[in-house]
Amino acid sequence: MYFFYRLALAFFTLWEKLYMKVYIKVCELQGMKLGKGVKIFERVYFGSEPFLIEIGDQTQIAGGTRFVNHGGTTMTLRRIPGFEDVRIFGRIKVGKNCTIGSNCVIQQDVEIGDNCILGSSSVLTHSMPDNSVFSGNPARFVCSVEQYAESLLDQNTMYPRELERDKTALNQWLKENLPHEYKKTKVYKSKRTTSED
Length: 197
Fold this sequence. Notes:
4-stranded parallel beta sheet; alpha/beta; UDP N-Acetylglucosamine Acyltransferase, domain 1; 6-stranded mixed beta sheet; single chain
C-alpha cells in the first residue's frame, strides 16, 4: 500500500510541476516579467492580468499565493446608480531576492522592495520598503530583515552542512538528532470586564 501511495504522490508532484511550468510560460507570453533565478512553487495564481506583474531576480514564491491585479468588488458597485463606471486595475512589482510565504494574497498597486520577506497567509494591501519583513491580515511591518536574521541566529539548527547535498541523509539526521524542544505557551489575559450589577 505504501508503494502505491509513493507512486501516486510522485505522479501528482510531477503533474503539479509540469502544470506550473506551462502556466508560468503562458503568463510570460502574456507579458509577465520574471527575473533570473525566480522559484515559483505549486498553485501560485497570477490573476487574469499577468502582464501587470513584474518579479525580480532570485525571488521565491511559495504555494497557494495569489496576485490580485483588479478589484472584483466593482461588480457589485456597478449595479448601484452613480457607480456604473467604477473599475480598479493595478500593477504588482516584487523586488529582487524576496521570499513570499505560502497562501499570501498580494493586491493591486503594490510594490515589494528588494530583500523583503512576506510571512505565510499574509494579505498585502500596501507597498513594502526594501529590507523589511511584513506579516498578517492585513500585512503590517514586523521588523527589518537584519533584525529577523539576528533573531533566527538564536534558533539556528546546527547539523553537518554537507548533508544538504543528500536530502534523505539530512532527514535521517534531523529525525534522530533534533531535540524535542518547543516554544512556551503564551498566556493571554482576557480583556473582558465583568460588572457586578
